[in-house]
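Friendly challenge for the regulars: who can give me the structure tokens for this chain first? No prize, just bragging rights.
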Amino acid sequence: MLTTSTIREVPSPRPDLFAFRITGTVTRDDMAAMGTRMADVFDASDDKVDMLLIFDGYEGAEPLAGLSWPSIKSRTQSLWSVRRYAVAQAPDGAEAMIRAMDAVIPVDAETFDTEAEARAALA
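First reply, four minutes later:
Bragging rights claimed.
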């Protein structure tokens, strides 16, 4: 399971659901580690997976935090490797972006006010 200074993989009830709790200020190293973790998952699976991101005390991200090769690679792979993408307690502005992206990417992306609602939707 992945654990960085701000991203911690949390247990899920299904082997095809990958859940992460995000706290504090996310760094480039945090994003790279999560990208590497998910790229490994995508490479090892012939089936699509679901992802759950839980923002809990999130304080933003460092400038350019998502511009590492592992982060970019996993985001690209997610377009054909993720079935459902749920975000709980999305930070300000992210909910509108996620709804907009849901309309243009081949992944079912949803936001939820609480972790419980997100987990129920993915159950």
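The longest strand covers residues 49-61. The two ends are 20 Å apart (CA to CA). Your move, everyone else.
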